[in-house]
Amino acid sequence: MATPSPIPPALLTSFHSYLLTPNLRILVVIGAGLSAASGLATFRGAGGHWRNFDAMTIATPEAFNADPGFVWQFYQMRRRAAFAAKPNPAHYALAEAAKRCRDFLAASQNVDGLSRRAGHPEDKIEYIHGNLSTLSCFQGMDYGGFVESCGWKAEDQTQDLPIPDEGVVPREMIPKCPNCKTGLQRPGVVWFGESLDEKVMDRIQDWLEVQGPSLCLVVGTSGRVYPAAAYAKAVKKRGGKVAVVDIEDRGAEEGADWSFVGDAAVVVPEILKPLMERPEVVA
Ligand SMILES: [Zn+2]
Predict the structure, then answer these.
(1) Contacts of 4 (CB under 8 A, 6+ apart)
(2) What are the residue boundaries of the Deacetylase sirtuin-type domain, all occurrences included (predicted)?
């Protein structure tokens, strides 16, 4: 038996007709709710815990500086979970939509790599919080704050690091940066208290400044939290519209034009259906 659509028909029709606006520019803001349907736990934000520690106290440069082995144990677990997970129908629908729209950009807060594995075109997505499969260099901290990294970065590193899952890990066991040979290898994600990549943020800002009919589609993240809130607001300011897909009904309080309540894996493919009838855009 087919699952009945959770979306009220009138809401869907009105969204679909806006989606077919000629030359519509689409910005998708992606959050943890997109990957929840792939079985990945949310650690960001309030309530995320691991081994009785608040995830917000583990995912910081201070924590890594104090005990890199412990922080690596947390990330090894998350890396394995992410690499074992599979993209769900919403990841695929967004990837296919991106291929079929000339002006489409996704700003993903997820670090699990599932959008990439669903075939989302690389030039149509920015990973604003980095990626679990990326390794970079941690030079440490001094009294003045962070020490600038040497800039080393390695992508698609999916093998386990030689760090035991349990017990205290001495600092000497953490693999060194192969470039400067003094820094420690760290996960290539953005920690609490770290700033987002300027180039990435500039690209999204530039996108927001272009005129024309636009849609900000917020999937699986609170539209009240930075940067999603700022993007939705910027799109509205230029006369565009905002749609929210979330398991909780909070679109109305966020001023969304459409609020779709339900599992992203079910809702996203359905709301993007009209785009699938188009041919892929040839660059
Ligand atoms: Zn280095």
Answers:
(1) none
(2) 5-278
Binding residues: 137, 150, 177, 180
- Separation of 26 CA from ligand 1 center, angstroms? 37
Q: Domain range for residue 52?
A: 41-84+133-189
> Dihedrals φ, ψ of 179, to 5°?
-90, -60
User: Which residues are part of a known binding site for Zn(2+)?
Assistant: 137, 150, 177, 180
- Residues annotated as catalytic (active site), given as ranges: 129
The verdict on 233 and 281 lying in the same domain is: yes
Do strands 214-219 and 141-142 pair parallel, antiparallel, or not at all (unpaired)? unpaired
Q: Lowest-pLDDT range, 51-55, 145-149, 261-265, 277-281?
A: 145-149
| Ligand 1 midpoint to CA 198 (Å) | 20
CA distance 13 to 160: 47
Q: 116-131, pLDDT tens digit by residue?
A: 999 999 999 999 999 9
Q: Are residues 106 and 9 both part of a single domain?
A: yes
Q: Are residues 97 and 107 in the same domain?
A: yes
> How many angstroms is it from 45 CA to the middle of ligand 1?
29
Q: What is the pLDDT of residues 4-53, one digit of tens each?
A: 567 999 999 999 999 999 999 999 999 999 999 898 877 655 556 777 77
What pLDDT was estimated at residue 51? 76
